[in-house]
Specification:
The complex is a heterodimer of chains A (about 475) and B (about 250). With about 475 residues, chain A is α/β, with parallel strands linked by helices. Chain A is about 30% helix and about 20% strand. Chain A has 12 helices and 19 strands. In chain A, helix 8 links the parallel strand 8 and strand 9. The longest helix of chain A is centred in the last third of the chain and has 35 residues. Chain B has about 250 residues and is mainly α. Chain B has 11 helices and 1 strand. Chain B is globular, with a radius of gyration of 20 Å. The chains are: A alpha/beta (about 475), B mainly alpha (about 250). Chains A and B meet through helix 1, strand 1, helix 3 and helix 12 of A and helix 2, helix 3, helix 6, helix 7 and helix 9 of B. Strand 1 of chain A pairs antiparallel with strand 1 of chain B.
């Protein structure tokens, strides 16, 4: 009896110990886990840009994620947990059920599921509302960009030059750029039209100046204003149009950039059921902040090939980069054929398919800016930074018009370009890491074969084997 | 242990039960696989006929591989109790367990032999499913690393389920009760996530305890040390409990 009692207590003790160990091991492994993302594109991990940004976070932020409890929130929670691990001191999140938290929903003015609100966690005087930023989607791009906007203090002005046949940000027609204006607004930029002939100056608060597909000539006085603006830390986004006069080439040439007098025709555009005059941007500059990490294509519509040359700016050093190129499958069609309405029929005879530049950038610094400065005396006032200019030249303004902006990665590209021009590289748009698109075509017959193999043949053979074994075993027993 | 293992393998494959279970498993999974593939093919055709349809997320991992592995998990929850119920309960009912105790094998060896015997049946089932991924790869290139993660996940899930079934089988001499206990336990381990939704503060803990949530993540290609530890610790715990249960039979008799 005594032995049984001892055995009982020994078993009870060992089982209790095993249970405690089990729970401890689970808790430790939960807190100190290492994860491997085995997907080809690393879809279940955060991008380097987000990791870098979270490393610089120095302000407490909380994300309220209004997730429908009827759906599966595990993917969202897993992603938010990854954010929190990158900056546990400054980032926290809460999954909120609208129905269960009406007060919070009212305070944050959220009326439907699928939305998030980022809020600065800070002590404010009574009555003051902390700064908030709405997140429309629970993906990495939306959250990281929401964070950057929340932590940015001022709104930046982007002026669109008008009066020379340019596309306007304040008009909604297909060829205009109201969608781009909205996208810029979401990024914290205020887009406004600018009539240089009327104002006579480029506003001092200009972060980026846009010339979107001009079809009329610039006045010499306007060119002079633009040059002066660029030489004073100016940032210019120039989008070419098929009808952009050749005189612009003389002006852009000074900055080492040129638009060709032909139209790019790309056979690879048929892969996405687009017309050949929509060349696809498939090769990206791997190191440039605008295109670093780009995996998906951009679709440039009615694009002129760009050429990169030596910068001719006196007293300045310039560096131009081809940002986006077509594949080696593009040809050229004379611009005059398109403009004369001859159509887009083209004859590749006599042409070798090659890659053409669809977008380029230029970075220019006043001479002497790179020279090392003598160590300043403690009393000396800090020297102002030397002037520098940035230009992005896109081969087609049509690409960023209301009709085409939402296609492929066009929006990501243009927003990245604006962020680079505005020197806010940490606000570069993070393209969602979509898995590679792999469509299949399965004939009815192939489907039937698969059905026959996996739903009929294998189960039948397995059942038959089981029945035969059973039969022979019984037979054997009887014998 | 090898002798027990061989004996179990022979017992499984010399009875109709394992073969019929494999047939049911393959039939249901085959239906799921073929319908997923059909849906995927249809979605591809729709995407191809619309301009820039290629922007739609069409890839075999999300459309076919992940759902297939999730279904393997669900099916195992219903098939494995039928395979594990007899492991010890039958020996107990027939009185062969006491005889087994007299053999020069330890309790741990008995438990491990039976565990690996049952795991082999799961291995054979998984082997049969590999034909599906090979067929899929002939149509479109697939992410083999994700497939490997999925297989690792279902094998670990299978180990955990078998260890629980083995323990349930050691508690009783009735196969029916053993199967019922196993079904209840495994279903609870899956549905614990629903309980978590009712208790906001403990949601994370309940979600983490769910057996299927770990498989789901592994099938998507995310392998974490926590997933591995979760399944291995579960398996280890119930194998240990089974050994203790067997031991208790000796001193309580």
């Amino acid at each position: 009896m005594e032995r049984r009692r001892k055995q009982f207590y020994s078993t009870l003790f060992s089982v209790s110990l095993a249970l405690i160990c089990y729970l401890l091991v689970l808790a430790i492994s939960h807190d100190f886990q290492k994860t491997w993302d085995l997907t080809t594109e690393g879809r279940h991990s955060l991008s380097e840009k987000t990791i870098d940004f979270m490393g610089t976070l120095n302000q407490k932020v909380k994300l309220y994620a209004f997730v429908d409890p009827r759906g599966d929130s595990s993917v969202i929670e897993a992603m938010l947990e990854r954010y929190q691990k990158l900056s546990p001191r400054f980032f926290e999140y809460e999954i909120v059920d609208l129905q269960k938290n009406p007060t919070l929903s009212e305070r944050l003015q959220v009326r439907s599921y699928g939305q998030g609100v980022l809020e600065r966690v800070e002590e404010l005087p009574e009555g003051e509302i902390p700064r908030r930023e709405r997140v429309g989607k629970f993906d990495e791009a939306s959250i990281t960009n929401g964070l950057t906007k929340l932590l940015r203090n001022e709104e930046k002005s982007v002026y669109f030059l008008v009066g020379h046949g340019e596309r306007r940000p304040d008009q909604n027609a297909d060829q205009e750029m109201s969608h781009l204006r909205e996208s810029l607004q979401n990024e914290g930029y205020l887009a406004k039209p600018l009539k240089l002939a009327e104002t006579g100056e480029i506003p001092a608060d200009t972060t980026v100046l846009v010339i979107a597909g001009p079809t009329g000539e610039l006045l010499d006085s306007e060119k002079a204003l633009l040059d002066a603006y660029l030489r004073d830390n100016g940032k210019l986004f120039f989008m070419a149009d098929l009808r952009t006069p050749d005189s612009y080439n003389d002006w852009l040439g000074r900055y080492g950039l040129k638009m060709g007098d032909s139209v790019i025709v790309d056979e690879s555009s048929q892969q996405v059921n687009a017309e050949p005059v929509t060349p696809l941007g498939l090769k990206y500059s791997p190191d440039h902040p605008i295109t670093k990490g780009f995996l998906s294509y951009t679709a440039f519509r009615l694009a002129r090939p760009l050429e990169l040359r030596e910068s001719q700016m006196e007293g300045w050093s310039g560096n131009t980069t081809a940002l986006v190129n077509t594949n080696d499958s593009a040809y050229l069609l004379p611009l005059k054929d398109i403009l004369s309405g001859k159509g887009v029929e083209f004859n590749a005879a006599g042409q070798t398919p090659k890659s053409y530049v669809l977008a380029a950038s230029g970075k220019y610094t006043a001479a002497g800016a790179d020279e090392p400065e003598p160590s300043p005396s403690p009393d000396a006032e800090p020297k102002p930074a030397p002037p520098s200019a940035r230009i992005v030249l896109a081969s087609s303004a049509e690409t960023f018009s209301n009709s085409w902006l939402g296609l492929a990665s066009n929006r990501d590209f243009v927003l990245n370009a604006f962020n680079w021009l505005a020197e806010t590289e940490n606000q570069i748009t993070i393209r969602p890491k979509d898995p590679k698109i792999k469509p299949i075509s399965l004939s009815r017959q192939s489907q039937l074969w698969l059905f026959f193999t996996f739903c009929a043949l294998i189960p039948f053979l397995s059942t038959l084997t089981g029945l035969l074994i059973s039969y022979y075993r019984r037979k054997g027993t009887r014998l | 242990m090898i002798a027990i293992f061989k004996r179990e393998i022979s017992a499984y494959f010399n009875s109709a039960l394992a073969w019929i279970m494999m047939a049911v498993f393959m039939f249901v999974l085959g239906m799921v696989f073929v319908s997923m593939l059909g849906y995927y093919s249809e979605a591809s055709m729709i995407a191809a006929s619309s301009p820039f349809g290629a922007q739609q997320q069409l890839n075999p991992t999300d459309k076919v591989i992940v759902p297939t592995f999730k279904w393997v998990g669900y099916l195992m929850m219903f098939i494995l109790p039928a395979l594990t119920m007899r492991l010890i309960a039958e020996e107990s009912r027939q009185g062969t367990l006491e005889m087994l105790f007299t053999y020069p094998v330890t309790d741990t060896e008995i438990v491990l032999g039976k565990f690996f015997g049952c795991l082999s049946v799961v291995g054979v089932m998984m082997g049969l499913t590999s034909g599906m991924f090979i067929a899929l790869n002939r149509v479109v290139s697939i992410e083999w690393k994700v497939v490997a993660a999925g297989y690792l996940g279902v094998l670990l899930l299978g180990s955990a389920f078998i260890s629980f079934g083995l323990w349930a089988s050691s508690l009783t001499s009735s196969q029916l009760i053993a199967a019922a206990v196993t079904y209840c336990g495994l279903l609870s381990s899956w549905l614990v996530v629903i309980v978590g939704k009712e208790f906001e503060s403990a949601k994370e803990i309940f979600g983490d305890l769910s057996s299927m949530s770990h498989l789901s993540e592994m099938a998507q290609g995310t392998v974490s040390t926590h997933h591995l530890v979760y399944y291995l610790a579960w398996t280890g715990l119930f194998l240990f409990l089974t050994v203790r249960t067997l031991e208790s039979r000796k001193w309580s008799a």
